Amino acid sequence: MTNLSYGLTDKLVLVTGASRGIGRAVAVAAAVAGAELVITGRTIGALEEVDDEIKAAGGKATIVELDMKDTAAIPRLATAIEGRWGRLDGLVANAGMLPALTPVAHLQEKDWDESIAVNLSGQWHLIKAMDPLLRAAPAGRAILVSSGAAVGSRPFWGPYAAAKAGLEALGRSWAGESEQINLRINTLNPGGTATTMRALAYPGENQATLPQPEDITPAFLQLLSPDCEHHGALLAAREMLGLTAESRLARSRKR
Ligand code: NDP
Fold it and tell me: Global pTM?
């Protein structure tokens, strides 16, 4: 699919955590594909830079300062979207944070609370607030951004892994409740991607060996497309796009 063939022209797409990393790249790619964006995060200066990038690409975005821990602000955003557009065509629930990597038994309560608040509870508030707007769209699409940490065993990643596992379970329930309408809800694991969060988790790693955020945006655009047939699926961007270890190595040699 080329960018314009995703069928996103004039679709309204909300990307949370769009100020950097994967969210930023997805917002810009969706704008290039013709969508109008609502971009959120806590860092207004960084969102303004994303807005500039979107404008330079001929797109349009609205910036909203939003902390996912501010549970009253999330329904306020939904009310504002309802008033201005009356619908939401695409939701990319991407905002996330990585708490300190610590043994479960030594965790500080604040680290547990923040991970659950941002990575799980905030996502539920977002789903609850945006569900009616997605249903009001002719072909609503939602992507919940998860992680490989949600499954298997990852020592020291407890609060992040627990929140992402909870998010996946929430996504399965939400999708199961939305079978009869043209709403597609999927969970996407981006896989290790060169971002600030990844650098925090793996300091010293050569990020040139990883997919860049821009490399994985086609997986998001496919799931946002009105043609998307996945529903209730847990997908991996690398598998969707055939980003094998060999192709990554070849790319890092070119860089
Ligand atoms: P980054 O740290 O680069 O970006 C995180 C984004 O989330 C930023 O825009 C940040 O904006 C926003 N954010 C963080 N905390 C909050 C908060 N309290 N309220 C609102 N927004 C917040 O991370 P990535 O781009 O790497 O991660 C994006 C998603 O992908 C996350 O859900 C992450 O768990 C997931 N993921 C990433 C992987 C990777 O290898 N990079 C692998 C697997 C999953 P601001 O600071 O302005 O609020």
Answer: 0.96
